[in-house]
Predict the 3D structure of the following.
Amino acid sequence: MLADLATPCEVFGRVRDPEGDAPYEVRICSLTARVRSEHLALDVPWRLASLDRADTVIVPGIDDLDGDVPPALLSAIRRALRRGARVASICSGAFLLAATGALDGLRATTHWRCAAELARRHPEIDVDPDVLYVDHGRVLTSAGAAAGLDLCLHLVRRDLGAAVASDAARAVVMPLERGGGQAQFITHEPPADDGTSIGALLVWLEQQAHRPLSLPAIARRAGMSTRTLGRHFRRQVGTTPARWLSRTRVRRAQRLLETTDMSVERIAAAVGFRSGTVLREHFAKMVGITPRTHRRSFRA
C-alpha cells in the first residue's frame, strides 16, 4: 500500500531535533530490487539485511491478504524482534506481524474493513477495531490510512518528546492529536467559545478544572438541570461532563510529568484530582500506562 509506505518516509524523514539535525536514517527495504504496486513499480535500494541493524521496523499494509508471505520476510522480522528492535505495522501490515507470532496474546488493531478477518485468522489476538493504534512498547499496530500518521508521530513523541513531534506534525500538515480513538494522545488545545450552548461552559471548565467541581455545580453554571446538561454535553461534545473534566486533568498532569520534577501527589493536587491514587487510576484508564512510565518515556 503506497500510502502506508510513504507515511513513515515523510514523517521520520522530516524530523529535526532541537539542534536541527536529522535523528532518523530512513531505509526502504525489500526482498528484491524492484517491487510492483497497483499503480507503479518501485526500485528499492536496500535488502532485508538492513532489518538486522534497524532500531525501528515499520511494516506497511499489503493489498492482497491472501497472497503468499515470503518466509524470508517473516524470518527477518522475527530476528529484529528477538534482538529488541521496535516493530510496528500500518493498516493490513498487521497480518504480516501476526504471521510472525509477535501479536499472540496481545491487543492489536488494523484497518476496520479487515479487522474481523484478522480476528478470524488469528483468534489468539485481541483485535480492537475502534482505536487508531495500539502500543505495547516494542510491538505496535495501527489502523488504516491516516492512522499511520498518528502511529509515526506517536513514535517520534516517544523518542524525542512532544515539541519535536509537534514540529513533525506541522511539517506533514497533521494535528498531533485527532479526535476519536486517541487514547494515547494527551496533548490538548484549550477549548474556544464557539457560540454553542456548551462552548462557553467548556472554556469555564478548562479554567476551573483544578478546583473540585460537582455535576450540580457545573449544571448551575450552565443554567441547566443536570439531565439537560448531560444531554446537551453528549450531543455537542460526545462525552459526559465528568469524563471531559477527567480528560482535561489528565492532559494537564501529562504536561507536568513531562516538564517538571513534581511528585505524582503534587501533580494530582495541582490538576484537581483528590489524590495521587485517583490520578493514577484515571491516567492508566485514559493513557494506558502509569504516570511514572509516561514520565520516563516522554520526558527525554
In short: Confidence is low (pLDDT under 50) at residues 179-187.
